Prior knowledge:
Chains A, B, C, D: It comes from Novosphingobium aureum. Chain A is mainly α.
Amino acid sequence: MVPRYARPAMTAIWEPEARYRIWFEIEAHAAVKMGELGTVPEAAGKALWDWWATNPKVDVEAIDAKEAVLKHDVIAFLDWVAEQVGPEARFMHQGMTSSDILDTTLNVQLVRAADILLADLDDLLAAIKRRAMEHKYTPSIGRSHGIHAEPVTFGLKLAEAYAEFSRAKKRLIAAREEVATCAISGAVGTFANVDPSVEVYVADKMGLEIEPVSTQVIPRDRHAMFFATLGVIASSIERVAVEVRHLQRTEVLEAEEYFSPGQKGSSAMPHKRNPILTENLTGQARIIRSYAMPAMENVALWHERDISHSSVERFIGPDATITLDFALARLTGVIDKLLVYPERMQKNLDRMGGLVHSQRVLLALTQAGLSRDTSYRLVQRNAMKVWESDGQLSLMELLKADEEVAAALTAEQIEEKFNLDYHFKHVDTIFDRVFAD
Amino acid sequence: MVPRYARPAMTAIWEPEARYRIWFEIEAHAAVKMGELGTVPEAAGKALWDWWATNPKVDVEAIDAKEAVLKHDVIAFLDWVAEQVGPEARFMHQGMTSSDILDTTLNVQLVRAADILLADLDDLLAAIKRRAMEHKYTPSIGRSHGIHAEPVTFGLKLAEAYAEFSRAKKRLIAAREEVATCAISGAVGTFANVDPSVEVYVADKMGLEIEPVSTQVIPRDRHAMFFATLGVIASSIERVAVEVRHLQRTEVLEAEEYFSPGQKGSSAMPHKRNPILTENLTGQARIIRSYAMPAMENVALWHERDISHSSVERFIGPDATITLDFALARLTGVIDKLLVYPERMQKNLDRMGGLVHSQRVLLALTQAGLSRDTSYRLVQRNAMKVWESDGQLSLMELLKADEEVAAALTAEQIEEKFNLDYHFKHVDTIFDRVFAD
Amino acid sequence: MVPRYARPAMTAIWEPEARYRIWFEIEAHAAVKMGELGTVPEAAGKALWDWWATNPKVDVEAIDAKEAVLKHDVIAFLDWVAEQVGPEARFMHQGMTSSDILDTTLNVQLVRAADILLADLDDLLAAIKRRAMEHKYTPSIGRSHGIHAEPVTFGLKLAEAYAEFSRAKKRLIAAREEVATCAISGAVGTFANVDPSVEVYVADKMGLEIEPVSTQVIPRDRHAMFFATLGVIASSIERVAVEVRHLQRTEVLEAEEYFSPGQKGSSAMPHKRNPILTENLTGQARIIRSYAMPAMENVALWHERDISHSSVERFIGPDATITLDFALARLTGVIDKLLVYPERMQKNLDRMGGLVHSQRVLLALTQAGLSRDTSYRLVQRNAMKVWESDGQLSLMELLKADEEVAAALTAEQIEEKFNLDYHFKHVDTIFDRVFAD
Amino acid sequence: MVPRYARPAMTAIWEPEARYRIWFEIEAHAAVKMGELGTVPEAAGKALWDWWATNPKVDVEAIDAKEAVLKHDVIAFLDWVAEQVGPEARFMHQGMTSSDILDTTLNVQLVRAADILLADLDDLLAAIKRRAMEHKYTPSIGRSHGIHAEPVTFGLKLAEAYAEFSRAKKRLIAAREEVATCAISGAVGTFANVDPSVEVYVADKMGLEIEPVSTQVIPRDRHAMFFATLGVIASSIERVAVEVRHLQRTEVLEAEEYFSPGQKGSSAMPHKRNPILTENLTGQARIIRSYAMPAMENVALWHERDISHSSVERFIGPDATITLDFALARLTGVIDKLLVYPERMQKNLDRMGGLVHSQRVLLALTQAGLSRDTSYRLVQRNAMKVWESDGQLSLMELLKADEEVAAALTAEQIEEKFNLDYHFKHVDTIFDRVFAD
């Protein structure tokens, strides 16, 4: 975790105190159910929750000190709780194994992380939608291979982003479901010393589903899917980030990351406004998606479990979620405050002297009865003049002045072929598709 | 694609002829709809389908020869079709762009590949289920960290695999849905020269959904998710493969890949039966999951599209699906014919002289009123004797002979603690959870 | 392997015949040495080489047919050779294990592949050097963050590429050395049935070093390093490819991939020349570097060996080397024939009305005795006018006309600050550093 | 960075104070050289170093507070230094760019990290060597595919590890050299405002080489190679870790991670000693090698630079080096204190009743004049009896008692084939090869 790419709410999930609090809840819920079953005295669960109701401070330092001696984190924790609660607490954890606590806790953390990320996505979607509506009909040149192709609108670019992050949201909901499971199944997952109904009870209380079959641990294909999904979402962030970086290039300058008027250095070199937020996002995407690989390698644990997944998860659990949370929020800010320059978009659109409309003219000539070869030759000879003038000449004017062309098409007909509205007649349809929900 | 890791049905999807056949269908469906709309003569679509009804051979060589001249695959194809069908065919592709064909075709291929993979998963699940039922109550030692922990059954191991591949199936269904889209939206996705209803029509005919917003290309986050999902599934294959490899180790030998009696070399060194199929699967899993990275890097195409994704997809499209198909089928064969040795499982279970039951005895002593420290000391002194005998002594017998223990627990009580059934009382519950569907 | 990204010389290395020929050489060299040692009759080696001297056809089909029956590739091969050579051939392979042949062969293939790649790099370096010299002093705007920064020369960009691929070459030489080893050490690497001097002899004949200690297999950290190195080289290809793609953007257009005058479609839309070769290279880089991951996972084989590395290597051995060979050659072609537009570079340099020189003016004003704040204010007020004019006004002219500036700096002094030569005074030094070798 | 996987010396390299101290040194060295050149007053460098000689505290908090206001880390630092040193300090950084400091500093950090890692490798090599010598002739069964093959010695396993980490060291030295460069070349690498001799001087003082050509930044192929190399080294760690995990399995138990006698839980379940250190290392290897991917993606920065590499490096710079340092030290500890059980190794060797020697007997029978088929049949019928007895019968005894075998081989001859020394005759040769240096 890199502090400058971390926001407090997400970071809090991964702090020791949060972990211990989840541990407590799992143990206390289990104790209540075991009390019901008669496995342990009913007083045990009550004592635990009564103490918890006093909103006690979880003394991380004290627990860590115990761990240093006992060399076992869960035992250290249980010991400390027992000291606080009294003798009834000694019935905690009966028949359970450390992984019951650790794995269920990891899943609670991932679910909470997913909830924050889902809220982040909602914020991002809202920002994209607002800007998309604002620029629904702002003309902009569409580019394939970085080369001018045909007109689009800036709103369409944002509609694509909206659709993409809508998919991201759907995927994240599925990924959240993947890890929203609870296992309280004992040393090798057989429930030898703990009744399955305890698992059912704890799962319900913690907002999780039961893990149908566990093997001391919750199977790691679930987590592999979770982190792979974060990697795909990060890649979508990169896509938008790269788009903004391109748009902000000196020669393009159709949009810029927000730059506060007073920001130092902006005036003596007013052109030097660097898209550092989106470059930063590009790098973060690289990191987040790289975590998919060790997450997948974690799946093939040996037999009923080995602990090789654990060191991996100590990195990627916090790092992937914290960084993605930060990245989504940063992207939301970028979109929300993006400086958009419609005039420059129009200027770029016009920069090729109308060459982007040459295909329509070609088609019109063919439809007017000229052979394809002739049509091509007519367009070509005018297009080349425009090209050689570096866009200073206008294809439309040259065509109007070309006698052979004029014989086939009227000036109005030619002008019509240069009309941007032609390209935008289905923008509304696309917006309906994308923003219907 | 490595021929020895390829099966014909999946390979066929990726062959040029299959691709051209899909191209034709897309173009012909589009022509029919355009005919309805009046964009092109109605005769066009009819002529195309009439010709298709003659079940013509797609002459890959002829088309490739054209491409070599024209330097454009789609134009070469259209040309060839036009030669076969006649003048009406020249109305094909009107207002469309190459990517409309290429991207929709890729998605058709991926959907078909997913359908094969789903069938593979069904076969695998059936094989696992059959063997799980067969070994539902076959005792086996559960191992954590490779060390004997507590008893499980071999059926439980398979139940876990069943649950894991059931999740794999669910994920693959979602991944299939991700790529089951069709785009017929023109040069930059604006439908400038093709009506959106054509896309709707073609999508329906090809069994796809419309792509709500495309940008010449279908967005690659869909494909990233698809290939990431295959990577996770491959990792689950690795998990089972590694389990089999472990079970087949000389010292463990609880199961073996099927080995035909006459297989050369099996008799002079009868112990030397190598788990080469599952080792092979392990390597295939590494390759398949590695494809997730370039698939994710493919997402951030520039502006409305660049073609950098294409070279990646020429590798991973066929390689990931063909290899995963092969791997799933191979794993199914391994499971289906796996030689399982219950006697050896029992022998391994017993190998530690009953030490795996020490926890239960410890608990029983505590419940019989002894302090935890005393209980521990009593178990310990007998456990150490067993350990030092390398499992030749029996913990149960030693405990029965230990006067202090005997004072607390009767022989029957002690024996009961060594009863395997205690561990298997919830196997049925777990099987109900896993195999309910 | 994707045929369209494959060149014959590299592909040939990976064809069955090439593999069998290497097998033969290893076996025959080993037989000669064993003959010297008296382990086998001296006639054996002689018979093998005599037959080989007749330049016999290696009948891949016949060997494969044997393998289909025998289920063992090396035995099938030995069998076939024995049939051709006669009874003496039965002494081949004495005391050796299949991996002795297979692993040494893989390394011979990788070494040969590396030799082709090294030649590719030499060609690439030559092309880059030629173009760098040609454009040593061609002014071009340097960009950080995609934004105009200060002037560079196009030659400097190429010098950087030259230095980078010089490093690539050095790395590849080291990577080649990593895999240039030979193991003839028997079933578990103990030389139990084969004398170490055989390994020494064969290594020498095959142009390899002996593997100091093998464990049936040659250790895979060597191959991991090899493939990781290819991944880094591919990433450098991507860097140059991305640079070309940027330079070819419609708004930048400082360079273009070569486009033959007659290439279809170039004239009606003369601006639509897509950098598809470099986009293609970008995708290939993604694939090639992805192979580093499974190569690294291959290192941790179990005990003296398992065969999980093998399926991985069947993919990445050919695919990484064939694709990198293709990519290097393609990049060489791109550089060699790159259309470079110095006028456009100059135009882009001038496009900001001289704002890129504002820093030098600022410094000059300070050195002329004005306070930093005053200097800043003076530059700023003129810079903003240029900016607002979108580069139509000239910063130099405005500064000359600004009375306060003129009071501090003469017109000549101001003009000197806009002199490009100032920036290029150390180009020669850099070229000396880079091209010294 | 995960604190529990971090050691102080390596962590210190990445702390803000260390970074600021390197910044100071670079700036102060540059100021001295610029003083010599007359670019700045000679007093500047002197003032800086005089202050430094007072061993001043670097007030990280104060600098960070300035950065919060100035939004620029290097300017904040320069400001703070200027406050401490006085007016002469204002000549720092003349003609330089932030990246000159930041990139050179990163490389100093990586070089220092590499030096620690090299020392770690030396410690590891020493530990491996000591244990290899100790167990040079400790017999152990060699396993291929996890199945007993032929005898090796435990020392040979360690010799392989020694050879592998010797290669790791050589690679790390090369990787260190890759990043041991210094760039002081200004805004776009042209030395426009800073003389190249400053770079030469600073490089020399900082123990670095000059970067022949930089583009504001030091090219990232160097760092990609560095991190890829760490990934390969981590994979070698995994290999040894997996070997130990295998050896510690209950059924194998040829070696164990050190377990202090008093460690809790060891006695009631004396068999439950888990190889958690090596499992932990396995996971760390997954993480460390995953960093190679984003490092490679960092190479293709846009034009003269973009800052997308930076966020990646904030993660992988510290995380890869700190975790690898920890992992190497942990592995050294594991090897150093590894509990090795030669008796168990012998017992496992014998476990198959001598089947591992069947190949030698087969060969001996052939050499004694029997046909290969007959020899095979004779060995087979005895081998099968051993196999069916689960190793309770002895192949040697059965062969001696087999009349047909006895007709071909004397009892002494048969016994000789079961002599382990036969397998170890070249151990000395291998050790000479490996430990020669």
